[in-house]
């Protein structure tokens, strides 16, 4: 709430400033390391699938996360119907700042090798009933 009160400007400006704060505070070495490891494989997609499966198994299995695997032709997918980042922003009265958290997924995807494509069409923060995560082999 304090962040929302301190950020000046339009809603778009506030989101952009929050994105900068979150991204700068996140340890990007993890994203770079993942991208570097995956980039060493001729076909990084099978390794990526295993890493995502482990992350989903151990990081996103307990409430307040609610995740469902989705069959995706030519890739892997899952939907989140509950997210603590979204819940926190709504609870604190700054739901518009959820976008700053959601956009970190796109930031991380920038480190993926070109053979892996991330797509997302909707998020809880945009008013959808779930966040869709789709990863495809290019």
Summary of the model, kept short:
By secondary structure, the chain is α+β, with helices and mostly antiparallel strands. 46% of the residues lie in helices and 17% in strands. A 4-stranded antiparallel β-sheet has the order 1-2-4-3.
Write the element-wise H/E pattern from the N-terminal end onward: HHHHEEHHEE
Radius of gyration: 16 Å
Strand content: 15-25%
Residues in helices, as a percent range: 40-55%
Major beta sheet summary:
4 strands, antiparallel
Work out the helix count: 6
How many runs of DSSP E, i.e. beta strands?
4
Would you identify the regions where 5 or more consecutive residues have pLDDT less than 50?
none
Broad structural category:
alpha+beta
Termini separation? 41 Å
The average pLDDT score comes to 86
Q: Which shape, going by the Cα principal axes?
A: globular
Instruction: State the strand order across the main sheet.
Output: 1-2-4-3
């Amino acid at each position: 709430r304090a962040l929302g009160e301190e950020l000046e400007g339009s809603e778009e400006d506030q989101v952009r400033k929050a994105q900068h704060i979150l991204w700068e505070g996140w340890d990007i070495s993890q994203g770079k390391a993942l991208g570097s490891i995956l980039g060493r494989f001729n076909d990084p997609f099978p390794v990526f699938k295993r890493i995502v499966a482990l992350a989903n198994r151990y990081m996103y299995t307990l409430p307040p996360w609610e995740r469902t695997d989705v069959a995706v032709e030519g890739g892997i997918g899952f939907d989140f119907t509950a997210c603590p980042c979204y819940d926190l922003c709504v609870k604190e009265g700054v739901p518009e700042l959820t976008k700053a958290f959601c956009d970190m997924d796109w930031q991380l995807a920038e480190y993926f090798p070109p053979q892996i494509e991330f797509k997302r069409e909707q998020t809880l923060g945009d008013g959808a009933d779930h966040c869709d995560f789709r990863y495809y082999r290019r």
